[in-house]
Specification:
Strand content: 15-25%
Number of domains: 1
Largest sheet: 8 strands, mixed
Number of strands: 8
Structural class: alpha/beta
Strand order of the largest sheet: 1-2-4-3-5-6-7-8
Distance between the termini: 36 Å
Order of helices and strands: EEEHEHEHEHHHHHEHEHHH
Helix content: 40-55%
Length: 313
């Protein structure tokens, strides 16, 4: 059976306040077990993790939440309320609510990963984050540094790489237009989205009842963060162990984007799989097993042979 078709496991839901925003947070499994927080991307909400939760909740305390503006969480009215700083504050509020004293393990996909790099590279939070699994979502500061380095080198191959990524990221420019992107969602893209995903991923994925809201509000993620961070990148290092899960058929994130974190991390493991961008749904069991193995390593410092084999540094 396709992992994405697994029914949602019952969890305990609460509202966590982060400034003026109310976040819908759901916890699964025994709170005495290591806590794993799953952060979804765009244009999704926390249900994208259902298949992963189904595998992990038996041995871990698993937490999902709807990012501000998505799912059952409330939506701020100002674009700048979707900045990386605000998103990091949301994550910290969730951590305090579900695991106030122990470090947590982060797993994030797409924009969930882009936003959580902000916390992973914040030295003030290094004691609160035990491990980080990133899926199809690079750090914007790392990308900005990579752009600057490649364009500044003047080397044709390096410039070609930048142009190639720009072609994959055409939608970023489109999302900067004030009316176009929200109008597309409001005029029916939410109803067409399952078909779009079917053509992109080659598999039927579950319907999202809040798709229009998630699509429209999530555009602010791009508007509030892309230009400021790519045009003025910061040097952001981390000592948190990082695992990269890389779908090799991803149509949005190229290998150089995945590897942009290498100079800024102390330890990295990388696993590639022949899959498309939404592999958290289409290959949920594989994702969950990779996460479980990595979390066990971070908890015990015992590296399995299969994990040692994929260690980059």
């Amino acid at each position: 059976m396709n992992e994405a078709s697994i029914a949602r496991v019952a969890g305990s839901t609460q509202v966590v306040h982060s400034g003026d925003v109310d976040l819908a947070v759901t916890a699964y499994g025994d709170p005495q077990n290591p806590t794993i927080i799953l952060v979804h991307g765009y244009p999704d909400n926390s249900q994208v993790w259902d298949g992963v939760v189904d595998v992990l909740h038996h041995h871990f305390h698993v937490v999902t939440y709807d990012v501000r503006g998505c799912g059952q969480s409330t939506a701020p009215g100002w674009m700048w309320d979707y900045s990386l700083a605000r998103l990091s504050e949301d994550l910290q509020a969730v951590m305090r609510a579900v695991c106030p004293t122990q470090p947590v393990h982060l797993v994030a996909h797409d924009w969930g990963s882009i936003q959580t790099w902000e916390s992973v590279t914040d030295h003030r939070l290094k004691a609160r984050i035990a491990s980080y699994t990133s899926i199809s979502g690079p750090c914007l500061d790392h990308i900005g540094m990579w752009f600057r380095s490649n364009l500044g080198s003047g080397k044709p191959a390096a410039v070609k790489q930048v142009l190639g990524q720009a072609m994959h990221s055409w939608y970023v420019a489109a999302f900067q237009l004030p009316l176009l992107a929200p109008s597309v969602w409001k005029l029916g893209l939410d109803k067409a989205w399952p078909g779009v995903l079917r053509r992109m991923e080659g598999e039927e994925l579950p319907a999202n009842p809040s798709q229009r809201k998630d699509g429209v509000n999530g555009i602010n993620l791009y508007r509030a963060n892309m230009v400021p961070r790519l045009s003025n990148p910061r040097v952001r290092h981390t000592s948190v162990p990082v695992q990269l899960l890389v779908p090799t058929k991803d149509k949005f994130v190229t290998p150089p984007m995945v590897e942009s974190c290498y100079p800024y991390t102390e330890s990295v493991w990388r696993r590639d799989i022949e899959a498309n961008h939404w592999m958290v749904e289409t290959h949920a069991e594989w994702v969950a097993n990779c996460v479980a193995e990595f979390v066990e390593y971070a908890e015990t410092d015992r590296e399995t042979p299969s994990l040692a084999k994929v260690r980059v540094k």
